[in-house]
Amino acid sequence: MEAVYGVFTLARQAVGVMETFPLGPFAVARDGAFRPREAGPPPALRFRWRGRRCEAALRADGLRLAAIAGRVPSTAERGADRDLAFQAVAALPGLLPAGWRLRLLPDHRIQVEQETAAVPTATGVIAAMVRFALALDPCLDRLEQTPFARKREDG
User: What pTM value is reported for the model?
Assistant: First the structure.
């Protein structure tokens, strides 16, 4: 018997059941499993939270969430209080949930990261993005209290 979608499906209308359907660079399985469609660099969903660039990158072993939380002024910027900026950055790890990482990138941007080990579903990816953004708030609140945060450059 042919695969059918319901009582009212006409004969020969059900050509076959899709195993996955495309969603941008991702393939979504019938059970909601979410994976890259092609080999290569992991595709990512990009979004902004409170004006900051965020990214959810799908990897073979799970999901990597990252956000550019702010930027430390460079020595070339007049009147920049780098000491104050570094004090604020030094306080951030205590505000982050367990397992999160804080990195100072070569271009002075402050990046916050989290990796999850679970194989995500499409719904799970969206839920993880929301949880990440909400958990990031204390870190962003702290940075926004510093004078250097007013001139934010997050790419």
Answer: 0.75
Q: In what order do the strands lie in the sheet with 20-23?
A: 20-23, 26-29, 34-36
Looking at the chain, the whole-number percentage of residues with pLDDT higher than 90 is 26
The three-class DSSP label of residue 91 is helix
CATH of the domain at 146: 3.30.1460.10
Parent domain of 117: 42-150
Given strand 44-49, what is the order of strands in its sheet?
44-49, 52-59, 62-71, 109-116, 101-104
pLDDT of 31 above 50? yes
pLDDT of the residue at 129: 92
Residue 2 makes CB contacts below 8 A (sequence gap 6+) with: 11, 12, 14
pLDDT at residue 112, as a whole number: 95
Return the H-helix or E-strand segment holding 125: helix 122-144
Q: Are 40 and 79 in contact (CB under 8 A)?
A: no
